Sequence to fold (365 residues):
Amino acid sequence: MKTVLTITRWVVGLLFIFSGLVKANDPMGLSYKMQEFFEVWNLHGFHDYTLALSVLMIAFEIIAGVAVIVGWQFRLFSWLLLLLIIFFTFLTAYALFSGKIKECGCFGDCFKLTAKDSFIKDIILTILIVYLFIFRFRVRTLIGNTLSILLLICTTVISFYIQFYVLKHLPLVDCLPYKKGGHIMTLRQIPPNSVPDSVVITFIYEKNGTRVEFDADHFPDDFSETTYKFVERYDKIVRKGNAEPSIKDFVLINEQEIDVTDSVLSLKGKTLIIFSKTWDAEWNLPYSELKEVADAFSIPLFVSTSAPAKVKQQITGSILKSDFVAIKTAARVDPTIYLLENGTILGKWALADSQTLISYLKEKK
Fold:
């Protein structure tokens, strides 16, 4: 019994630590996933709090994982873990059975799981945590109370430090489509040899006040336009394919409302693009410094934003309009600077690190 209990604690603890550390690399990603759930539930008022909730939840996962392994305050943490896994299982069950959420974001963008995989994982974890909860009184602290407290303090500091760092300087590991070395034009295209969705078109007609559904291969024998009144049609996916580009909804629109995406991405040599959802006045100075260097080296500089009117009030330059969702993916830190060469991403910097980029440009010139 003791051996099984110890192994279970290590398995559960390491899973929570791993899950927390992966998400700590990109807490903004979890924040966006929370917003997705809130939008489905029509709880839009919580959007302003999702980042704080994300940071706290990630830190708790890591701290709880360490606490479970060392056995510190195990009775308390067994309750907290049980409540947390019930909540997670509810979310993954909702994502799976409602079909409204494709991925739960359990391991962030680095290890994507389908809704079904996430639900199965949480069911297994629930069984393990229930087992720990039942035998919670048999668990003793492995390294003593003082050392356990010191370890958990260090864990807490590290958990929050990692998140605050990446929220200012970009994720340590880039798991998004806009990776260094990626050619954006290619990533916007459907991969060769990909398989499209297999779709069946279903028609809904009304006959004598009753709705009748059928597909193109099963029209009723007595079908006629006088007998059957068309209501609607819908496409049903019978086999999911993989014919999707890595980068979707990436479009650059100029002031004349013209799509200039291909022309910008096809520019020869180096190009700078700043992605920003909005714009704060404190960013004006680093932008001006970067623009001065870009102009000196004849490097085109564009600002891609979902709020061009607001940005134009703050700065001058080539301001392009982009989709808000696309910018959320491209810029985990607002704003984020991309350095392209012939459409290929040479590097990404948060605006807070613009001096590092300026030094890089001067060195390479």
